[in-house]
From TrEMBL:
GO terms for molecular function: ATP binding; ATP hydrolysis activity. Residues 1-14 have a biased composition (Low complexity). The keyword Cytoplasm does not apply. Keywords: ATP-binding, Nucleotide-binding, Transport. Residues 51-284 form the ABC transporter domain. This is NitT/TauT family transport system ATP-binding protein.
Amino acid sequence: MPANNENLNNENLNVPGDHIQQPARSRALQTTSTEAGGPAGRTLPDDETLLRVRGLKKVYHTDGGDIEAVRNLTFDLGRNELVCLVGPSGSGKTTLLKCIAGLLAPTEGEVVLAGKKITAPPKKMAVVFQEYGRSLFPWLRVADNVELPLKNAGVPKAERTRLVNEALEAVGLAHVPKSYPWQLSGGMQQRVAIARAVAYQPEVLLMDEPFAAVDAQTRADLEDLVRRIWKQLGMTVLFVTHDIDESVYLGQRVIILSSSPTVVQEDLVIDLPAERDQLETRADPRFTELRHHVYEQIQLAKKGHRPDAEKVNR
Ligand SMILES: Nc1ncnc2c1ncn2[C@@H]1O[C@H](COP(=O)(O)OP(=O)(O)OP(=O)(O)O)[C@@H](O)[C@H]1O
């Protein structure tokens, strides 16, 4: 079970043990931030990069005036990387994901997938949202829900059957292909949504707070499921979460967004061993250091600290 979940929406949250003096850091944290002089997000050489986000800005034009949701985001995702994204409520996480998914046009800047600028939903990308209840079709059986995007993509029947069976196997639902979503628990429904995304064999899997609505034990199981599938299938995963522990447990990197209008506050390497375990990893002193650091950064962001403060005030 995830210990010490931290919901960033809760203004009164405390890190248990915060009053205890923290041990000296065992080794330096690997971060990229504007304060270090470079672009806030980590950028990679061309041959290692799958997804590039460059100078991304999004302004919503509403009857009540303009809302600058995202000011300037720059970072790269490498092939087969699992990167988590955290930030205060309203910092533009969903907006960013929608721009990456080609569902929203950026006001400035661009998102580039495998060298091609994204202007519409790319074929090799899948998204899993929090609201699995709304994303599954209640009148379709589990296997038919998973099969639908493959049908729409024109994948031949035999191939579809193989992909659906493999995906249901991978998420531990091979025994319920004929059930309807409403006959399953919340955690199982979210597994169906993950299976549907996985069967599609995306190069990039975007996940927007996918476990926010499930209980803690199910959440821990689903976290391990994501890491297992990510390793098995070799996708690039961008995982948005409100939960600091979850971001550190899952990610190879954690990108921390500032408060709105949003820039990358910090891009932190999670240098925990590749084999993660709910009990052992979370008991690792390095895990505590990393989560403490992410928590501090989020608190700074919530208090309005901005890495681009001089530019903002100018
Ligand atoms: N369709 C829209 N029209 C106008 N403003 C919007 C729209 N969608 C989002 N916003 C505004 O953009 C800002 C960022 O919203 P967004 O949902 O991307 O943030 P978030 O970080 O995902 O939030 P949360 O953590 O609460 O889910 C907010 O001020 C929000 O009110």
